[in-house]
Amino acid sequence: MPPTLQKIDHAALRVNQSFIIVLNVLAFIVNAWWLSALVMVIMASGSLRKQPGFRPAYTGLLKPRGWVKPDVLADNPEPHVFAQGFGAVVLALAVVALLLGQGALGWGLVWLVIALAALNLFVGFCAGCAVYYWLARFNVPGFGKNPPPGTFPGMRPKDA
To answer: Is residue 125 part of a domain?
Structure first.
Protein backbone atom coordinates (compact mmCIF):
# COMPACT_ATOMS: atom_id res chain seq x y z
CA MET A 1 0.00 0.00 0.00
CA PRO A 2 1.52 3.38 -0.97
CA PRO A 3 2.38 5.47 2.11
CA THR A 4 -0.31 8.11 1.51
CA LEU A 5 -3.17 5.61 1.30
CA GLN A 6 -5.09 4.41 4.34
CA LYS A 7 -7.24 1.39 5.06
CA ILE A 8 -10.83 2.43 4.30
CA ASP A 9 -13.77 0.13 5.00
CA HIS A 10 -15.88 0.50 1.86
CA ALA A 11 -18.65 -1.54 3.47
CA ALA A 12 -19.18 1.38 5.87
CA LEU A 13 -19.33 3.72 2.86
CA ARG A 14 -21.94 1.50 1.16
CA VAL A 15 -24.05 1.37 4.34
CA ASN A 16 -23.85 5.16 4.45
CA GLN A 17 -25.02 5.40 0.83
CA SER A 18 -27.85 2.95 1.52
CA PHE A 19 -29.18 5.02 4.43
CA ILE A 20 -28.92 8.24 2.39
CA ILE A 21 -30.93 6.66 -0.43
CA VAL A 22 -33.60 4.95 1.67
CA LEU A 23 -34.25 7.86 4.02
CA ASN A 24 -34.41 10.44 1.22
CA VAL A 25 -36.73 8.28 -0.88
CA LEU A 26 -38.92 7.88 2.20
CA ALA A 27 -38.80 11.66 2.76
CA PHE A 28 -40.02 12.19 -0.80
CA ILE A 29 -42.77 9.56 -0.56
CA VAL A 30 -44.23 10.99 2.67
CA ASN A 31 -43.37 14.60 1.73
CA ALA A 32 -41.26 15.06 4.87
CA TRP A 33 -38.67 17.78 4.28
CA TRP A 34 -37.51 17.34 7.89
CA LEU A 35 -36.32 13.79 7.12
CA SER A 36 -34.05 15.08 4.35
CA ALA A 37 -32.89 17.75 6.82
CA LEU A 38 -32.04 15.00 9.32
CA VAL A 39 -30.04 13.13 6.66
CA MET A 40 -28.26 16.40 5.85
CA VAL A 41 -27.33 16.94 9.51
CA ILE A 42 -26.04 13.37 9.83
CA MET A 43 -23.99 13.73 6.64
CA ALA A 44 -22.56 17.09 7.74
CA SER A 45 -21.75 15.69 11.18
CA GLY A 46 -20.01 12.72 9.61
CA SER A 47 -17.98 15.03 7.40
CA LEU A 48 -16.87 17.05 10.41
CA ARG A 49 -15.88 13.79 12.15
CA LYS A 50 -14.20 12.59 8.90
CA GLN A 51 -16.23 9.38 8.74
CA PRO A 52 -19.47 8.18 7.14
CA GLY A 53 -22.40 9.83 8.90
CA PHE A 54 -24.30 6.57 9.27
CA ARG A 55 -21.21 4.67 10.47
CA PRO A 56 -22.82 3.97 13.91
CA ALA A 57 -25.47 1.83 12.16
CA TYR A 58 -22.67 -0.15 10.51
CA THR A 59 -20.41 -0.56 13.54
CA GLY A 60 -23.15 -0.88 16.15
CA LEU A 61 -25.74 -3.02 14.37
CA LEU A 62 -24.92 -4.42 10.94
CA LYS A 63 -21.26 -5.46 11.26
CA PRO A 64 -21.50 -7.09 14.73
CA ARG A 65 -24.43 -9.26 13.59
CA GLY A 66 -22.53 -10.30 10.48
CA TRP A 67 -25.14 -8.75 8.19
CA VAL A 68 -22.45 -6.67 6.45
CA LYS A 69 -18.87 -7.86 6.13
CA PRO A 70 -15.93 -5.41 6.15
CA ASP A 71 -14.47 -4.50 2.76
CA VAL A 72 -11.19 -2.78 3.61
CA LEU A 73 -9.32 -1.22 0.66
CA ALA A 74 -6.28 1.00 0.31
CA ASP A 75 -7.80 4.41 -0.43
CA ASN A 76 -7.83 8.09 0.48
CA PRO A 77 -10.42 9.16 3.06
CA GLU A 78 -10.41 12.83 2.01
CA PRO A 79 -12.40 12.44 -1.25
CA HIS A 80 -15.13 10.51 0.57
CA VAL A 81 -15.34 13.15 3.29
CA PHE A 82 -15.51 15.86 0.62
CA ALA A 83 -18.24 13.99 -1.30
CA GLN A 84 -20.35 13.52 1.83
CA GLY A 85 -19.93 17.18 2.80
CA PHE A 86 -20.87 18.32 -0.70
CA GLY A 87 -23.94 16.07 -0.56
CA ALA A 88 -24.88 17.67 2.77
CA VAL A 89 -24.64 21.12 1.16
CA VAL A 90 -26.89 20.02 -1.71
CA LEU A 91 -29.41 18.63 0.79
CA ALA A 92 -29.25 21.90 2.76
CA LEU A 93 -30.12 23.79 -0.43
CA ALA A 94 -32.93 21.28 -1.05
CA VAL A 95 -34.38 21.82 2.42
CA VAL A 96 -34.23 25.61 2.03
CA ALA A 97 -36.00 25.33 -1.33
CA LEU A 98 -38.69 23.09 0.19
CA LEU A 99 -39.22 25.49 3.09
CA LEU A 100 -39.59 28.35 0.60
CA GLY A 101 -42.30 26.45 -1.26
CA GLN A 102 -40.09 25.50 -4.21
CA GLY A 103 -41.05 21.82 -4.23
CA ALA A 104 -39.79 20.95 -7.71
CA LEU A 105 -36.37 22.46 -7.02
CA GLY A 106 -36.14 21.04 -3.51
CA TRP A 107 -37.18 17.50 -4.37
CA GLY A 108 -35.10 17.67 -7.55
CA LEU A 109 -32.01 18.36 -5.44
CA VAL A 110 -32.96 15.53 -3.06
CA TRP A 111 -33.25 13.20 -6.06
CA LEU A 112 -29.87 14.37 -7.30
CA VAL A 113 -28.34 13.25 -4.00
CA ILE A 114 -30.25 9.96 -4.21
CA ALA A 115 -29.05 9.35 -7.78
CA LEU A 116 -25.41 10.08 -6.99
CA ALA A 117 -25.53 7.93 -3.84
CA ALA A 118 -27.05 5.11 -5.94
CA LEU A 119 -24.33 5.52 -8.58
CA ASN A 120 -21.75 5.10 -5.82
CA LEU A 121 -23.55 2.19 -4.17
CA PHE A 122 -24.40 0.16 -7.28
CA VAL A 123 -21.68 1.11 -9.78
CA GLY A 124 -18.79 2.04 -7.49
CA PHE A 125 -18.39 5.54 -8.94
CA CYS A 126 -18.27 8.40 -6.44
CA ALA A 127 -18.95 11.65 -8.32
CA GLY A 128 -17.87 13.78 -5.36
CA CYS A 129 -14.60 11.83 -5.16
CA ALA A 130 -14.03 12.44 -8.88
CA VAL A 131 -14.57 16.17 -8.33
CA TYR A 132 -12.09 16.06 -5.43
CA TYR A 133 -9.45 14.42 -7.65
CA TRP A 134 -10.09 16.88 -10.49
CA LEU A 135 -9.64 19.80 -8.08
CA ALA A 136 -6.39 18.19 -6.89
CA ARG A 137 -5.26 17.88 -10.50
CA PHE A 138 -5.76 21.65 -10.91
CA ASN A 139 -3.74 22.25 -7.71
CA VAL A 140 -6.65 23.78 -5.81
CA PRO A 141 -5.47 24.32 -2.21
CA GLY A 142 -6.82 21.70 0.20
CA PHE A 143 -7.17 19.06 -2.50
CA GLY A 144 -3.85 17.25 -2.54
CA LYS A 145 -4.50 13.53 -2.95
CA ASN A 146 -4.32 11.47 -6.12
CA PRO A 147 -6.42 8.36 -6.82
CA PRO A 148 -4.92 5.03 -5.77
CA PRO A 149 -2.59 3.65 -8.47
CA GLY A 150 -4.48 2.05 -11.36
CA THR A 151 -7.80 3.56 -10.26
CA PHE A 152 -9.85 5.90 -12.45
CA PRO A 153 -10.68 9.06 -10.44
CA GLY A 154 -13.90 8.43 -8.53
CA MET A 155 -14.02 4.66 -9.06
CA ARG A 156 -13.79 2.25 -6.14
CA PRO A 157 -10.18 1.00 -5.84
CA LYS A 158 -9.41 -2.57 -6.80
CA ASP A 159 -8.96 -5.09 -3.99
CA ALA A 160 -5.25 -5.27 -3.17
So the answer is: yes
